[in-house]
C-alpha cells in the first residue's frame, strides 16, 4: 500500500520573531514494514540554514534556522511511503515474557545491547509504580510475551478514557494513571512505563494514520493529526507495534515517522525562538492512499 | 637550648616532633618509622629559620595577597556571598621529580584512554556492542547526551582538557579518586596558589627548583588555537561562564584574562549561519573555539536541557557542522560516570593493549554476578552508590545503616543489581598543613590537569592540593573545591631542567588579545560608573551634612534658621530617592531628630537607595565584568566591599562613629575613579564607564543645587549652604581664590554650574558627555547625530547660554529662585533622557529565547 502524507504545522506570533532554530522529526524512516519513497520539508519563510542528520535511534532529523524577522512560521512535510505488511506471529507461540527479558542480556547480540536502552527510564517515562502494577496484571508467570502485551493494550484501551482535553504534551505518567484519561501519547507512555517496570524493552513510535479509510472501514481515532503508539521487542520476531488508542496491532494503516524512548526524543517539531510573544499553533495532517504496492 | 619564645610553635626540635601521622594512611612528609622524607628537609629547615613570628608574618602576607587579588571561591549557599576568599595553606605539597614522572605517565595513559572511550561512545559504540561496557550503564546515564552522537571533533580529540583527583594508598601508590571531564575546574586556582606562594616564600621557592606552571597554560592556548576551525589568522576563543553567581567565577575570569580570551555568558553569544557569534556593540564576531565552564546539559536549550537560560540555542548544531570547537566536547560528562572505573582495566587492554598504569578506587558493578556476590559479602566495609546520580546521588554507607534499612538496601541490590555500584572507601594520604600555629597531618588530595598537545597529553607539573578541613579521612569526596588549597611543588632533581623563566612570567598573559565588548559588558561598565559616582556623591553629602549638624549643637532650631540643615537633609532624600525621608509624610519629625534616618542611610542594607545598597550594586556590577578590571582596581573594589561589610555588620550607633567609617570610603572611591581614569585603556568599555560616571555626577550636582540654592535663605544660612555645596563638590579652595566679592550665590553657580574647566561643575559633565557619546559606536548611522549626541549637545548649549544674573533672581514670593529651579529641572530631565537613549541604543539585550514546545505545542492524538 502506498500513501501520500502531508503534515502542515503553522505558528502565528503576536510579535515579530528575529531568529529561530528548529529541529523536526517529520521525514519517515525505513523500517521492516515500510519504505520511505520520498520526503521533503518546505519551510516558510526561507531558512538560512537547513540540514539533515541521523539521530541516535536512526531517525531523520531536520535542523533549520530562520534569520529574518517573521510573524508566522509554516512547515510543510510531504512524503510518500510504501507499507509492506509483515505477518504477526501467533501470540500463544511467542516466548514467555520472562525469557524474553533474559534474552535482552544475551552477550554478543548487538540487537540486544542496542535494545537495552529501551528498558531504562527516560525523561518523560519514569518508572511509575502505578503503571508497573497495571501492566503486571497482564504479565502472569510464563505468559507468552505477545499475548500478554495484547492483553495490556486492550486493558489500556478499555480502562483509560480517550479525552483530548485531559492532558498536554508534558503531563506526567503518574498524573495520567491517576486520572485515567488522556490521548495516544499518554496511552503509549503508560504502556511503556509499565513494560519497562517489568524489565522489558519498549519504545515510543511517532507517526500517522490513514485519514479516510476505504468504504466499509471505520475511521480510526487520531487520524487528523500526528499519532503515537508503542513497540515491544519480541525475541525471534523483532519489534512489534501496538496501538492502544485503537486497540490494534498496526498492519497497513500506520505510517512510522520516528522511534524513540518517549515523545521528547521524537517531537515532530520543536524550536527556540527570539521574540514572538504569544503564539498560536495550527496543525493539519492528510494521509491518503495513492495505490497498491507494486512488486 | 629551647628559647621560651619559640616554645609554642615549630621550634628547633618541635617542628616535626609534634607531628604524628595518622594511623593506617600514607603521610607525605614522614615515613611510618618517623623519619622525615629527605625532600621535605629543605622546606622544614627554611621554616625553622623563619621562626614562629616569620611564619605567621608570611601567612598573613599570603592572606593579604589573596584578598588583594580578589581570589574567591563561593560554594553555593555560603553566607559570605560572592566574595568568600580562597583559602591557601602556607605549606606546599612536595613531590619528587622521579615520582612525578611515573605519575605523569599514568595520567597521560589515562587521558588517552578516556579520550578513546569518549570517541567510541559518541561514535561507533563498539565498546558497548562488545559488552566491554554494559549498554544500560551508559545509555541510562544523564551525562550521556544522545543528541551529541556522531558529532566529530578536530583531531579526534573530544577530551581537550582533563583533571584527575588523586591520593596515595597507604602503600604509597597513587590512586585515582575521580575524573573531571566536563569543565575541569581548578587550574586557575593552582596558578594563583603558585603566584601567592612564590611571592610569600621567594627564597625557598627559588632554591627548591620547582617546576614552573606557565608552560602548561601556553599548551592550553596552543591546543585551542590548533583545534579551532580556522577562519582568520588567529582564531577567536572565548571562555563561557555560567555567570558571576557561579562558585568558581573567579577562576573563569582569571583564566580568561591570563589566556587573553574574552569572558562571555550564553546570552552574549548566538548561533547564525550554523556558526557561533559574539554579539558586540553593533556587530557580530565569529567565534572559533569555546573554553567552556558551563556543564554539558546547560549548553543548548534546543537539543539539550530545554529550560536552560545559560546556553546558546543551536550550539550542538554548530558543533555538528564543524564550525566551532568546544573544549571539552559536549557530552564528555559521561566519563565522570562512577561505574566506569570498574571497567577501565579491561578497556585499557582492549583499546591501548596495555595494563592500566594508575589504579582506581576499587569499584564493583553489581550487575555482574561475581561482583555482586563479593559486594554483598563485604557490604559493611564498602560505600554503595546508585549508578545514575539522577536517582539519588547520596553515597550509602551500609555499615552505618539501621538493620531494617540495611536489609532494604540488600533487597534493592538483589532486585535491581544493575543500578548499583560499590566502592572501597577512600583513605586519603595526609600531608602537613599549618593549622593555627601547628603543623598537623591532614587528609590531602591532589587534582592534576592535562591538556591535549599535538603529540599527546601534557600534564601540568604541579596541580591543586586540597586539604580536608577535618582530620576524618574516610569521607566520600565531592567534586567541589571546598577546604584549604595547597600549592603543589614538583621538585626538579637538577636545576637545569628548569625553564629559564622569571617568576614574573607566571602572571603575565601569554598574548594580550583586545577583547570585544558585548552589550552586557558595556551595560555593566556603564553602571559601575554610575554606582561608583553615586556612592561617592552620597558619602560626600553625608559627611558635609553630619559636620553641619555637629557644628550646630543647638539643633533643633526654629524652622527658619534651621533652613541650612533642612536643605541638606532634603537634598539627601532627594538624591537617594529614599522617600519619605526628610521630604514626605512624617518628614518634620525626622527633621527634628535626623540621626536615625542618617544612620539608616549609612548602614541599612534593606533601605533602597542607601549607601550599603549602592555599594552592593557597585560590587555586583564590577564582579560581572571582573576580567575587565585590573588587579589594582580589583583590590580597591575589595577594600570597598570590606568597608561595606563592616558598615553592615557593625552599624554605627552615633554619627561621629559613622564619620570615621565614611572617611576611608571616600578615599577608596576616589582611588577607584582615579584608577579607571589612569589604568584602563580608553577603549569602548572605558567610554561606557566614563559616560555612566558623568551622567551620574551631572544629575547629582543638578539635584544638589536645586535642593540648596532654589529656596532663599537668610544670610547666615546661605553662607553655610554655600560652604556645604563647596564641600560636597570639592571646590572650596578654587572658590576662595577666585571670588573675593560679588554675589555669593552667583559666584557659586559660576564655579559649580557653568565652569567647563571645573571637573565637578555641571557644565564640565555635559561637555565631557558630548565628547564621549560621539565616540561611542554608531551602528548603521553614517551621517547625522545619534539621539544621545543630540541630547548632550542640547543640554550643553542650554547651560552655556544661561545667564547667571537671571538665574539667581528671587521670584515675587521672595521664597525661591524660580528660573534656577526650572533650568535645573530641565537639565535633570535631559540627563535622564540621555541615559535612556544610551540604554536603548546599546544595552537593548536580545530578547530571551523561548521554546516552541510549550503547553500549546502539538499533541499527538
UniProtKB/TrEMBL annotation, chain A:
InterPro entries: Bac_transglu_N, Papain-like_cys_pep_sf, Transglutaminase-like
Pfam families: Bact_transglu_N, Transglut_core
Stored SUPFAM superfamilies: Cysteine proteinases
UniProt-listed Gene3D superfamilies: 3.10.620.30
SMART domains for the chain: TGc (SM00460)
Residue intervals of the Transglutaminase-like domain: 176-246
Superkingdom, taxonomy of origin: Bacteria
Protein name according to UniProt: Transglutaminase family protein
From TrEMBL, chain B:
Ranges of residues in domain Circularly permuted ATP-grasp type: 92-467
Domain DUF403: 518-843
Cited InterPro entries: ATP-dep_Glu-Cys_Ligase-2, CP_ATPgrasp_2, DUF403
Cross-referenced Gene3D superfamilies: 3.30.1490.270, 3.40.50.11290
Name this polypeptide is given: Circularly permuted type 2 ATP-grasp protein
Organism of this sequence: Allochromatium humboldtianum
Amino acid at each position: 500500500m502506498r500513501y501520500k502524507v502531508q503534515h502542515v504545522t503553522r505558528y502565528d506570533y503576536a510579535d515579530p520573531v528575529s531568529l529561530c532554530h528548529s529541529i523536526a522529526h517529520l521525514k519517515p524512516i525505513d523500517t521492516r514494514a515500510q519504505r520511505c519513497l520520498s520526503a521533503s520539508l518546505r519551510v516558510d519563510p526561507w531558512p538560512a540554514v537547513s540540514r539533515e542528520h541521523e539521530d541516535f535511534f536512526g531517525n531523520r532529523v531536520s535542523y533549520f534556522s530562520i534569520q529574518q524577522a517573521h510573524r508566522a512560521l509554516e512547515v510543510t512535510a510531504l512524503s510518500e511511503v510504501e507499507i509492506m505488511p509483515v505477518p504477526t506471529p501467533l501470540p500463544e507461540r511467542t516466548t514467555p515474557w520472562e525469557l524474553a527479558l533474559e534474552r535482552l542480556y544475551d552477550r554478543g547480540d548487538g540487537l540486544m545491547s542496542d535494545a537495552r536502552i529501551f528498558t531504562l527510564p527516560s525523561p518523560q517515562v519514569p518508572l511509575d509504580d502505578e503503571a508497573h502494577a497495571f501492566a503486571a496484571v497482564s504479565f502472569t508467570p510464563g505468559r507468552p510475551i505477545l499475548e500478554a502485551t495484547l492483553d495490556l493494550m486492550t486493558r489500556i484501551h478499555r480502562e483509560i478514557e480517550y479525552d483530548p482535553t485531559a492532558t498536554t504534551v508534558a503531563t506526567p505518567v503518574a498524573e495520567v494513571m491517576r486520572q485515567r484519561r488522556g490521548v495516544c501519547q499518554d496511552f503509549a507512555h503508560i504502556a511503556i512505563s509499565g513494560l519497562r517496570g517489568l524489565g522489558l524493552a519498549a519504545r515510543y513510535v511517532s507517526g500517522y494514520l490513514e485519514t479516510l479509510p476505504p468504504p466499509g472501514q471505520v475511521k480510526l481515532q487520531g487520524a487528523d493529526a500526528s499519532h503515537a503508539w508503542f513497540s515491544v521487542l519480541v525475541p525471534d520476531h523483532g519489534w512489534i507495534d501496538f496501538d492502544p488508542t485503537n486497540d490494534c496491532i498496526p498492519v497497513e494503516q500506520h505510517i512510522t515517522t520516528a522511534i524513540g524512548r518517549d515523545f521528547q526524543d521524537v517531537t515532530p517539531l520543536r524550536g527556540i525562538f527570539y521574540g514572538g510573544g504569544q503564539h498560536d499553533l495550527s496543525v493539519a495532517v492528510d494521509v491518503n492512499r495513492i495505490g497498491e504496492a507494486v512488486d | 637550648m629551647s628559647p621560651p619564645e619559640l616554645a609554642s610553635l615549630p621550634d628547633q626540635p618541635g617542628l616535626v616532633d609534634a607531628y604524628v601521622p595518622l594511623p593506617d594512611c600514607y603521610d607525605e612528609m614522614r615515613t611510618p618509622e618517623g623519619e622525615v622524607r629527605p625532600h621535605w628537609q629543605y622546606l622544614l629547615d627554611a621554616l625553622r629559620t623563619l621562626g614562629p613570628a616569620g611564619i605567621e608574618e608570611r601567612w598573613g602576607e599570603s592572606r593579604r595577597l589573596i584578598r588583594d587579588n580578589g581570589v574567591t571561591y563561593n560554594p553555593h549557599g555560603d553566607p559570605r556571598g560572592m566574595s568568600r576568599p580562597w583559602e591557601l595553606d602556607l605549606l606546599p605539597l612536595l613531590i619528587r621529580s622521579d615520582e612525578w614522572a611515573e605519575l605523569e605517565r599514568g595520567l597521560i595513559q589515562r587521558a588517552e584512554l578516556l579520550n578513546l572511550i569518549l570517541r567510541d561512545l559518541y561514535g561507533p559504540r563498539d565498546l558497548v556492542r562488545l559488552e566491554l561496557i554494559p549498554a544500560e550503564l551508559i545509555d541510562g546515564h544523564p551525562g550521556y547526551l544522545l543528541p551529541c552522537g556522531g558529532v566529530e571533533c578536530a583531531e579526534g580529540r573530544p577530551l581537550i582538557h582533563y583533571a584527575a583527583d588523586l591520593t596515595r594508598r597507604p602503600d604509597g601508590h597513587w590512586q585515582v579518586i575521580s575524573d573531571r571531564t566536563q569543565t575541569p575546574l581548578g587550574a586557575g586556582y593552582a596558578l594563583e596558589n603558585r603566584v601567592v606562594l612564590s611571592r610569600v616564600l621567594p627564597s625557598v621557592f627559588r632554591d627548591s627548583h620547582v617546576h614552573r606552571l606557565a608552560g602548561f597554560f601556553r599548551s592550553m592556548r596552543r591546543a585551542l588555537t590548533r583545534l579551532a576551525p580556522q577562519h582568520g589568522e588567529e582564531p577567536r576563543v572565548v571562555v563561557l561562564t555560567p555567570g558571576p553567581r557561579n562558585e568558581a567565577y573567579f577562576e573563569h575570569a582569571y583564566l580568561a584574562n591570563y589566556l587573553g580570551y574574552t569572558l562571555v555568558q550564553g546570552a552574549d553569544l548566538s548561533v547564525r549561519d550554523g556558526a557561533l557569534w559574539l554579539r558586540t556593540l553593533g556587530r557580530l564576531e565569529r567565534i572559533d573555539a569555546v573554553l567552556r565552564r558551563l556543564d554539558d546539559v546547560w549548553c543548548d536549550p534546543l537539543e539539550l536541557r530545554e529550560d536552560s537560560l545559560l546556553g546558546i540555542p543551536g550550539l550542538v548544531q554548530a558543533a555538528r557542522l564543524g564550525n566551532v570547537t568546544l573544549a571539552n566536547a559536549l557530552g564528555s560528562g559521561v566519563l565522570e560516570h562512577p561505574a566506569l572505573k570498574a571497567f577501565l582495566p579491561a578497556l585499557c587492554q582492549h583499546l591501548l593493549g596495555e595494563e592500566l598504569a594508575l589504579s582506581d578506587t576499587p569499584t564493583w558493578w553489581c550487575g555482574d554476578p561475581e561482583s555482586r556476590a563479593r559486594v554483598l559479602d563485604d557490604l559493611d566495609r564498602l560505600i554503595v552508590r546508585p549508578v545514575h546520580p539522577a536517582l539519588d546521588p547520596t553515597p550509602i554507607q551500609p555499615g552505618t545503616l539501621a538493620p531494617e534499612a540495611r536489609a532494604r538496601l540488600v533487597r534493592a541490590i538483589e532486585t535491581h543489581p544493575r543500578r548499583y555500584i560499590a566502592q572501597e572507601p577512600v583513605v586519603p594520604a595526609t600531608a602537613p598543613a599549618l593549622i593555627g600555629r601547628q603543623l598537623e597531618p591532614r587528609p590531602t588530595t591532589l587534582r592534576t590537569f592535562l591538556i591535549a598537545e599535538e603529540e599527546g597529553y601534557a600534564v601540568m607539573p604541579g596541580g591543586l592540593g586540597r586539604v580536608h578541613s577535618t582530620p576524618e579521612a574516610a569521607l566520600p569526596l565531592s567534586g567541589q573545591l571546598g577546604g584549604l588549597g595547597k600549592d603543589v611543588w614538583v621538585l626538579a632533581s637538577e636545576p637545569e631542567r628548569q625553564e629559564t623563566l622569571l617568576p614574573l612570567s607566571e602572571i603575565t598573559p601569554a598574548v594580550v588579545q583586545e577583547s570585544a565588548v558585548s552589550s552586557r559588558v558595556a551595560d555593566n561598565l556603564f553602571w559601575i560608573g554610575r554606582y561608583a559616582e553615586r556612592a561617592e556623591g552620597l558619602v560626600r553629602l553625608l559627611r558635609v551634612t553630619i559636620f553641619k549638624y555637629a557644628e550646630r549643637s543647638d539643633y533643633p532650631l526654629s524652622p527658619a534658621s534651621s533652613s541650612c540643615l533642612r536643605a541638606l537633609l532634603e537634598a539627601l532624600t532627594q538624591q537617594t530617592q529614599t522617600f519619605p525621608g526628610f521630604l514626605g509624610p512624617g518628614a518634620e519629625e525626622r527633621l527634628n531628630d535626623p540621626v536615625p534616618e542618617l544612620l539608616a542611610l549609612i548602614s541599612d542594607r534593606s533601605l533602597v537607595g542607601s549607601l550599603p545598597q549602592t555599594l552592593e550594586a557597585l560590587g555586583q556590577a564590577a564582579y560581572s565584568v571582573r576580567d575587565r578590571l585590573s588587579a589594582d582596581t580589583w583590590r580597591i573594589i575589595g577594600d570597598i566591599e570590606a568597608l561595606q561589610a563592616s558598615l553592615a555588620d557593625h552599624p554605627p550607633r552615633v554619627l561621629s562613629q559613622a564619620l570615621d567609617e565614611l572617611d576611608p570610603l571616600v578615599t577608596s572611591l576616589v582611588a577607584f575613579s582615579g584608577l579607571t581614569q589612569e589604568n584602563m585603556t580608553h577603549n569602548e568599555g572605558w567610554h561606557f564607564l566614563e559616560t555612566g560616571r558623568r551622567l551620574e555626577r551631572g544629575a547629582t550636582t543638578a539635584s544638589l543645587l536645586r535642593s540648596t540654592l532654589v529656596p532663599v535663605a537668610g544670610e547666615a544660612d546661605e553662607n553655610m549652604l554655600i560652604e556645604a555645596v563647596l564641600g560636597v563638590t570639592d571646590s572650596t579652595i578654587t572658590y576662595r581664590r577666585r571670588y573675593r566679592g560679588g554675589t555669593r550665590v552667583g559666584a557659586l553657580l559660576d564655579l559649580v554650574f557653568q565652569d567647563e574647566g571645573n571637573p565637578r561643575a555641571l557644565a564640565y559633565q555635559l561637555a565631557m558627555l558630548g565628547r564621549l557619546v560621539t565616540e561611542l559606536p554608531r551602528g548603521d548611522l553614517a551621517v547625522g547625530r545619534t539621539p544621545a549626541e543630540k541630547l548632550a549637545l542640547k543640554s550643553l548649549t542650554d547651560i552655556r547660554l544661561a545667564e547667571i544674573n537671571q538665574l539667581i533672581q528671587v521670584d515675587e514670593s521672595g521664597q525661591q529662585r524660580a528660573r534656577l529651579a526650572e533650568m535645573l529641572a530641565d537639565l535633570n530631565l535631559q540627563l535622564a533622557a540621555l541615559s535612556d537613549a544610551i540604554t536603548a541604543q546599546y544595552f537593548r539585550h536580545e530578547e530571551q529565547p523561548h521554546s516552541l514546545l510549550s503547553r500549546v505545542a502539538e499533541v499527538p492524538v
